[in-house]
Amino acid sequence: MPPNGSSSVAAVWAILRKECRSEWRTRYGINAALLFAVTTLTGVSFAVGRLPDRTDLLAALLWIVLLFAALASLAHAFVREVEGHTLTFLRLVASPTAIALGKLLFNVIFLAVLEAITVPLFLILMGGPPVRWGPFLLILGLGSLALAATTTLVGAVVSQARGRGALFAAVSLPLLMVVLAAGVSGLRAQWDGNPVSAEARILLAYIAVVLGASVLLYDHLWED
Amino acid sequence: MSQAPPATAAALAVEAQGLAHLYTGRRGLLPVDFALAAPGVVAVTGPNGSGKSTLLRLLAGLLRPTAGRSLVTLDGHAMPPAARRTMLGLASPELAFYDELTSLENLAFAAEARGDRAPRAAALEALERVGLDTRAGDRVMTLSSGMKQRLRLAFALLHRPRLLLLDEPGSHLDEEGKRLVERLADEEGRRGLVVIATNEEREWRLAAERIELRGRGLGHPA
Q: Most CB contacts within 10 A, which of A24, A145, A183, A205?
């Protein structure tokens, strides 16, 4: 009686709800992420003021703030299960793929909440040319999905390794460089009034590759 | 194995063929062979480090054997290790729950993830069965170690599994809790197969069969 498709969907949904409930109760990730984002933006704003014509710096700064604010929580999605000894519980109720997809969806929602607070604050404090909301949200959304998919995959793979902190950094750095490069280039292009289709295609292709690799890898995780 | 077998229980069989596991640098379980069939209660005994817990994790599909294989057959179909979680329940000391959630929320989450259409009702029923229904709304972090052990038992029973794997089920339990384990082993042993890993005489005496692991214990070097 292998799990069928509907039970897998139920498992993903249950894990997503559980992640949201746990985060709501503990505020484990969101408080730290918001603290980092707000203090960084405030500090940079005090130091350099508004940057209305530096679209290169604006694009880089926004992605750096989002990346570092979110990274601690995203990277620990599976480490929390290992260190809290709850991974066995999870493995007994759902397949590794369902667990990882539930956590991926939670990470996407986590990023969306973080961005809903950070991006308006960024635009207010840092200034910048008017935002073209269509291209801006397209690049932000694709970049966030790419970031969440990468950190979920790498976090799952290294979660049971010794020295997983160093391993996470070493494995995810080259992967995240692609996301950062396309994300920064795309945001700069939308502020400069240029098309963002090239960056969007790169991010879409990247997401397809990472999600494809995830589906192939997840069911072989944690067997030993 | 003396009880009258219900028609549904007879189709469950568990077999080990040269089943062994080697952790990094040390043995977890020396090769073991056995064949079991439901209904009934089987005890697994052996010194500390002989591989009792490892054996249960191998049967549950949580570990991959480094030698040999385990077979779990249900209604004539071999269950691959990755799919066994759907038909077995495991209670072991290493099983932990989410501290920030209540007992009921933890079990309802498990039932929902397994596709149960009434997860809350299933969770309440399991808690009631182990006498923890009065603490259903308490967060796990507030439970005593004995209550957490009852929660492990409730989790193992949650989806009415045909194969029940109990690792040191009486640990942390008071006298009433130990009687609960005896009652559960008797009830579940009539409708399926119960495997108890223990060195407690009171627990292994619940079993009609016994698998004695003869490793040298204490996880000696390979």
A: A183
